[in-house]
Write a structure and sequence with these properties.
Elements: E1 4-13, E2 20-23, E3 32-39, E4 49-55, E5 62-71, E6 74-83, E7 86-91, E8 102-109, E9 117-124, E10 136-143, E11 152-156, E12 166-174
Antiparallel strand pairs: 1-12, 2-11, 3-8, 3-12, 4-7, 4-11, 5-6, 5-10, 8-9, 9-10
Length: about 180
C-alpha cells in the first residue's frame, strides 16, 4: 500500500472578519485534497451553522449529501440535495461559548478526475448548549461535475468568519 504524502498548498489565517475566503491556483499534481478548517462565526444569535463550499466558485452546483450529527439527547441524520452550495456544518456562532472554534476536515479524493467528485467531511463544534444541533457531524456526498477542482470558495452562511479563523489546504500524493 502506498504511503500518502501531504503537501501544504495554501494557508489562510484571518486577521480581520471576512464573509468568505478563496483558495486559488490549486495545482492538478496531487491525488486528493484535504482542507482543514478551524473557524468561528460572528453572528450574535447563531449556534452551530454551516459553511458553504463552492468548488471552482461554481454557483450552479448539483450535489447530494447525507449527514449524521449529534443532536442532544440523541443522534440524527438527514439527506440533502440541490444547487448553489455544499453545506459543511460545524461553524460556531455568537450563541456558543466565547472564543471557541469549530474544527472541520474536508476530504476530496480524485479531484482532477473527469468523473463526479465525492466529498466527505467530519466536524466538531463546541457543544455546551444541550439544545444545539450539528455539533458533531460526519457527511458524505457527491458533487455532480466532471471539472478538475482548481479553486475552492468557503463562505459563512450567516455573518462572517472571525479573526483567527484558519484554513489549511493540503495536496495528497500516494508515493
Amino acid at each position: 500500500m502506498p504511503t500518502p504524502t501531504y503537501v501544504a498548498i495554501a494557508k489562510t489565517v484571518l486577521t480581520t472578519t471576512q464573509s468568505s475566503i478563496t483558495l486559488n491556483s490549486i495545482p492538478s499534481t496531487y491525488t486528493d485534497l484535504l482542507l482543514v478548517v478551524s473557524a468561528r462565526n460572528d453572528s450574535a444569535s447563531v449556534g452551530i451553522q454551516n459553511i458553504r463550499l463552492r468548488p471552482n466558485n461554481s454557483t450552479s452546483l448539483v450535489y447530494s449529501f447525507t449527514i449524521g450529527y449529534s443532536s442532544p439527547p440523541n443522534g440524527a441524520s438527514t439527506n440533502s440535495s440541490g444547487n448553489n452550495n455544499i453545506n459543511i456544518y460545524g461553524n460556531p456562532g455568537g450563541s456558543t461559548t466565547a472564543n471557541t472554534f469549530g474544527n472541520i476536515e474536508i476530504y476530496i479524493p480524485n479531484y482532477t478526475s473527469s468523473t463526479n467528485k465525492p466529498i466527505s467531511y467530519t466536524s466538531v463544534g463546541e457543544n455546551n448548549d444541550a439544545t444545539m444541533t450539528f455539533a458533531n457531524v460526519i457527511g458524505a456526498g457527491l458533487w455532480s461535475d466532471t471539472t478538475t477542482i482548481s479553486s475552492i470558495v468557503l463562505q459563512s452562511s450567516s455573518g462572517s468568519f472571525v479573526s483567527g479563523s484558519r484554513f489549511d489546504l493540503y495536496g495528497i500524493k500516494n508515493s
